[in-house]
């Protein structure tokens, strides 16, 4: 009896450890949403509208139609309230285009209201995508005229992508479209686009394939493991490059472990299927040269914002079309070619 009383006292007076599941971390897994959020703009009203509409994802999955209708109504109110203010802040030569886009966006929101009323799940998702594309188009009017971030002078000899570029990646299993984000990874994106313009990746094999993890390519033919500049006859190295929301400067050659960032999520996270990441050796983070990988996001194995790659490798873009191709590629496949579709003018040879 004495022992029983002691045990009861222990359990009621001592804290009990409860093991919980891993947090979801960054819940944004849509590459287009990530790219919208990564734009270096400050237009609160437009971004509030974007986030309000993006928040309907969980409501759609849960079939919460009354809440969806209420959210769409809120979005319609935001457009009516802020449309004129937003257009007033846009350059005169772009105002007509913005007016037309707002008109199309209003039609999308009216259609969303009808889809929510009829509980048309897939119709709602398709129309919401169209509406978010309109918002993304409007947000681009607020991009700065000058590149907004400082690149250290020690990297002046490296190419840089001062904006975004769109590429077509043609593989032996089919084609994909990816957006390369030079705003948040100018040196990494610049090195990639520079090599694309040199046809460097044409006919290179997939040299690493791990299910639910990565597909890697970019290992040149011959003994070299990276891009050798023909002018210097030396391998070109690209530093680890990571931006973090709220931080003024981009971090170079420092991992999240080095910085003490154990719960941060980078501006470009490895949070979705087809995230493009820059490879470096296990010994140095500053020796990436030409090899890159496609991240094969698997929600249960790689919780968004809580995986082992964020803060250790640089993400520099996202596949936005052709996700099914990623699931078919193996080490028996190869990159046939990569071509720049849009944004080549944003590539600069050096600092």
Report on this structure.
Helix content is 35%, strand content 17%. The protein folds into two domains: 41-142, Four Helix Bundle (Hemerythrin (Met), subunit A) (Up-down Bundle); 153-348, Cyclophilin-like (Cyclophilin), CATH 2.40.100.10. A hairpin with a 2-residue loop joins strand 2 and strand 3. It starts with a helix and ends with a strand. The chain contains ten helices and 15 strands. The chain is an alpha+beta fold and 351 residues long. It is globular.
Outline:
The chain has 351 residues and is of the alpha+beta class.
Distance between the termini: 80 Å
Number of strand elements: 15
Would you identify the CATH architecture of the largest domain? Beta Barrel
- Model regions low in confidence, pLDDT < 50 over at least 5 residues: 1-27
How many domains? The number is 2
Please identify which CATH superfamily of the largest domain we are dealing with. Cyclophilin-like
Sheet with the most strands: spatial strand order: 4-14-2-3-13-11-12-6-5
How would you characterize the largest beta sheet?
A: 9 strands, antiparallel
User: Averaging pLDDT over every residue, what do you get?
Assistant: 90
- The CATH topology of the largest domain corresponds to Cyclophilin
Q: What's the Cα radius of gyration?
A: 23 Å
Shape: globular
Specify the structural class: alpha+beta
* CATH secondary-structure class of the largest domain: Mainly Beta
User: How many helix segments?
Assistant: 10
Element order: H for helix, E for strand: HHHHHHHEEEHEEEEEEEHEEEHEE
The percent of residues in helical segments reads: 25-40%
């Amino acid at each position: 009896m004495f022992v029983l009383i002691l045990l009861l006292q222990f359990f009621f007076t001592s804290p009990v450890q409860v093991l919980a599941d891993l947090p979801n971390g960054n819940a944004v897994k849509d590459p287009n949403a990530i790219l919208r959020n990564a734009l270096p703009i400050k237009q609160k009203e437009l971004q509030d509208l974007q986030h309000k509409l993006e928040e309907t994802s969980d409501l759609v999955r849960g079939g919460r139609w009354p809440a969806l209708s209420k959210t769409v109504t809120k979005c319609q109110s935001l457009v009516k309230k802020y449309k004129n203010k937003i257009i007033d802040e846009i350059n005169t030569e772009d105002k007509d285009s913005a007016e037309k886009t707002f008109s199309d966006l209003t039609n999308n929101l009216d259609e969303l209201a009808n889809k929510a009323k009829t509980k048309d799940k897939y119709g709602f998702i398709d129309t919401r995508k169209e509406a978010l594309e309109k918002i993304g188009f409007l947000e681009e009017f607020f991009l700065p005229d000058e590149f907004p971030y400082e690149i250290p002078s020690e990297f002046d000899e490296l190419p840089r992508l001062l904006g975004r570029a769109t590429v077509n990646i043609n593989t032996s299993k089919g084609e994909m479209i990816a957006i390369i984000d030079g705003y948040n990874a100018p040196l990494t994106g610049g090195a990639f686009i520079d090599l694309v313009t040199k046809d460097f990746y044409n006919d290179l094999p997939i040299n690493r394939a791990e299910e639910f993890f990565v597909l890697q390519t970019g290992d040149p033919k011959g003994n070299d493991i990276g891009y050798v500049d023909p002018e210097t006859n030396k391998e070109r190295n690209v530093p680890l490059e990571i931006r973090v929301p709220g931080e003024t400067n981009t971090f170079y050659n420092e991992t999240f472990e080095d910085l003490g960032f154990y719960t941060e999520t980078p501006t470009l996270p490895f949070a979705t299927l087809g995230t493009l990441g820059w490879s470096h050796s296990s010994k140095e983070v500053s020796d990436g040269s030409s090899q890159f990988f496609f991240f094969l996001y698997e929600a249960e194995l790689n919780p968004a914002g809580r995986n082992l790659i964020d803060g250790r490798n640089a993400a520099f873009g996202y596949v936005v079309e052709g996700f099914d191709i990623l699931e078919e590629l193996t080490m028996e496949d190869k990159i046939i070619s990569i071509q720049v579709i849009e944004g080549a003018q944003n590539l600069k040879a050096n600092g």
